[in-house]
Amino acid sequence: MTFDLLTLLTASTLIVSLCGVIFVFDTALRRNDAVGRAWSLAFLAGMLTTLSYIVWDFEPGAWWAVAVGNAAVVFSQVCMWTGARLYNGRSSMFWVGGLVTLVVAVSVPLSGDVPGGWAGGGYMIIGVALFAGLAGVESLRGRMRRSINATLLSAVLFIGAAYYLVRFCFFITIGPFDPVFRIYLGTESATFVSIMLVVGASFSLAFLRAGQVSGSARRTDDTSYSAGALVASSFYRQGGDVVERAARRGRRLFLVIGELNNLGEINTAFGRAAGDEEIRIFAEIFRTTAPETALIGRLTANRFVVLGSAFTETMGERLVGDIESALVDAAVGVGSGLRPTARFGWATTDQTGFSLSALSSAAIERLGGGAGDGRALSPTGLLQ
C-alpha cells in the first residue's frame, strides 16, 4: 500500500497541528516562559512547513511556497535548539539560526528553475541535519541531562539528524531524481519519517514541561519559588549542621555569595517576568556549576549562596570564576540582549574558622568591597 504526497502532507498537517495546538495552549496556560515560547514556535513552524508544501503540490510553479516551506522546516529545528539552550540557562543564539533560515529561504529563488520543487533543497536538508544535531547535543547538557525525557528527546533529534544527513549525502552524489533517492529519501518518505519524529518529540517536550511545572510547585517551604534553592531559614539550619560536622572531621569548607546587580532595573524597565527570568537563570547557573553535594540557598530576592567542601584553598574563588563564565553566555529572554550582571564574595573556614555566621560575614564583607577584592561583572561581561 502506497500513499501519494498530498495524502502524506495532509496527514502530517493534521498531526503536527494537533501536537502543536496542544503544546502551545499548555504553554500559555501553565508556564509561559522563553523555553515554552521557543518550542511553541517550533511546532508553529512545522505547521507552516506542511501547509506551504501542500500549496506547492497544488501549484508546482509556486516557488515562494517552496521557499517558505524550506525555511520553516529549518526554523523549526532552530527553535528546538534555542529552546534547549534556554532550558539549560544559556543564551539563545537565536540570531545564528535566523541567519541560516534566511539563507535557506533565499537559496530557492537563487537556484533557478529546478523541477520537482528541489530548488535550494540541499541547503534545507543540511540545515535540518545541523540544527537537529545541535538540539540533540544540547538536550544532553546542563540541566536537561538529568531528565530521561530529555534523553528520549535527544534520541529523536539524533535520528532526525542522521536521516537528513544521509539525505544530504545522497542528494549531492546521485541527485534528487535518482530512483533510489526518490523511493527511500524523497519527499514522501521524509514526510512519513517527520510524522513519527514529531509524535515522539511532542511527548518528550510535554513531559519536560510538566516536570518544570511540577518541580516549581513542589518548591514551597524548603525551596524558593523558581530557583530550586533553599530559603534562608532552611539554608542556615542545614548549613549550620554541615559546618558542625565538618568541624568535627577537620574538613575545610567554602562559602560563596552572589548578588544580582540589576534586578530592580530590569523589573522596572522590562517587567517582573523579565526579572523572574533573570533570577531563574542566575539560580540555575549556581545549581549547574556548584558541586553536587553543596548546599545552595536564596538569602534574599537577588542574593544566592553556596556552601560546600573545599578541597583546596581556592575552591570558592574557582567556583566564582565558573559562575562568571556562565553569566557571560547567559541571556534574559529570546533576542532581548539583556544579560544578568552580578558581584560575588567568598570565604573559607581557613580564614574564619568553623562558624556559618563568620563565613557569611566574611563573604558579605568581600561582596561589598570591604576586603578590597570582591569582583563584579560589567554589562559586557568583563571584570571590573
TrEMBL record:
Q: Which InterPro entries match?
A: GGDEF_dom, Nucleotide_cyclase, Rev_trsase/Diguanyl_cyclase
Q: Which keywords annotate this record?
A: Membrane, Transmembrane, Transmembrane helix
Superkingdom of source:
Bacteria
Q: Which SMART domains match?
A: GGDEF
Q: Where is the GGDEF domain?
A: 224-378
Q: Report if keyword Transmembrane helix is assigned.
A: yes
Where do transmembrane segments lie in this chain?
6-26, 38-56, 62-81, 93-112, 118-140, 152-177, 189-208
Please give the name of this protein: Diguanylate cyclase with GGDEF domain
Q: Which organism is it from?
A: Compostimonas suwonensis
